[in-house]
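Letters spell out the chain; backbone shape is given numerically. Both lines appear below:
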Amino acid sequence: MKPWKENGTAISSEEVNFLVYRYLQESGFAHSAFTFAYESQITKSSVAEAQVAPGMLITFLQKGLAYVGIEEHLNEDGSESRCDVDFSLLKAHVCGVRRNGVERGGSGSGSGKKKRGADDDNDNDNNRRGAGAGEDEKVSPAAAAAAAAAAAEEAPVATAAGAAAGSANMADTGEAMEVDTGEERGYGEENGGAGAAAAGGVAAGTVAANGEGGMGISTGDGLEGGPVGCDEIPDGDVAVLNNHHSEVFMCAWNPKYDLLASGSGDSTARIWQISPKLRGSKVAEDASRTSMVLKHSKEVGDKNKDVTTLEWNREGTLLATGSYDGVARIWSQDGALQHTLEAHEGPIFSLKWNDKGNFLLSGSSDKSAIVWDVARGDVQQQFRFHEAPTLDVDWKDDLTFATCSTDKAIHTCVIGEEYPRQTFTGHCDEVNAIKWDPSGTFLASCSDDYTAKIWKMGQTSCVHNLEEHDKEIYTIKWSPRPEKKLLLASASFDATVKLWDVHAGKVVSTLQRHQDPVYSVAFSPSGDYLVSGSFAGHLYIWSVKDGTLVKSYQGEGDIFEVAWNFREDRIAACFSTSTVCVMDWRM
């Protein structure tokens, strides 16, 4: 977009985008800011280096409104009309003197404006010109826009529909941005230490959810609140970990030990020690006291240090984190920094360990995927096959993996080979997530085109095209036990979770209790239960056997991730309200 110019002033779209981005950050809308930065690429622009004071978007709007006020009240002879009514950004301005409700015109009498009364409500000419505009007056663009807003207020049905559409669009956006945080002690680049840290650190999150998929049938009544016939998890069984200072986007249980890792938009990850002997508030007190803070910045409040993804290796000895600055890090389970991996040129959206644990795979907005040699802490091989940001990566075996992108393509690659082993095409929109089934036979993908697809190496077209969702599918997960029936769960912004029979290519069950986009699902380790988490803080636990809803929990804020511990007796959920909740699970 070319800069807009008038009377020596120039405004570029990048400058406007940067002010909007800063406003979202300053207002605490970290997830929206992350998504806006990703779509606008504003952090890569030269304007991102500008020294802009806080609140500048509001300042410019206030000054602009003041200018419009002067413009509207200026008579032809240079005098100013008296008006006691405040200007609004959204409502049409109607001049008036509060004492009698009618404006007394200035000496030039060029305006002749009057306060709109009930008899003017259906005046189409006034609606077109601006509220109260005289026959020979010029109406400014600002006044015209305000009049349109006023007209919309008079059409409640249309306005309500528009608001609903706007709300849906906001819910459909995805990621998270950095929020400045206060100073706190912890482990990280400054000290690389191990052991307990003081409270105040934060956890990490990711755009690509880790966990398993789940199923269910519609058993609720479709109303807000706790589901009928379902036990709510009591507050006494919930530990609320509130040491974060920004949205928590990701949480992952250690596969061997009672440790929970989390990542946040405040540039830190945290490792929590969750005692199996404690419950509820006692867990929170103990975990906050003994937790380790993994700092991703030498200076508190550095920009672009949001922890966007994290994952434990299979043995539970190492934790990998990726951040918005394009740097991946490997930590020991006691919080000591082992390696800093720098090669990406954009935010890291996904990290995956291979089963052997000798390679770490990362996908980034710089359109590439990198395989890292964990022992050396260096690049083994970088793969640059996508034409747009790489959103997700997943291993098929210790040497073969797949990547997906906003360019709608999926590549399967092998370490040591120069070109993709196979490329899958067929999605009509961005591919959000990919997952190999436990045996490495089938690759599942999901997209903004409302479909999930099943692929198989050696076949150019998809094995099954799964088309039951009505909105974007954000994540997919496989049932974890190969000896049981192979199921795929898909979670969508249409507020449903669907469970698919992969061999038949048909939906088995649909979970319809959620009222908001479902952001995360996870199978329990046994594959017998499913947990699902959505916006508005609704968490539901379902029986995979019969699809019945067995437990529920209502938290504060949006749920970005849910996960089971290895014992299958606890569930963790991370929220947009800077908290992580650990729930005791027992039937």
About this structure: The domain at 187-584 is CATH 2.130.10.10 (Methylamine Dehydrogenase; Chain H). Residues 1-6, 97-228 have pLDDT under 50 and may be disordered.
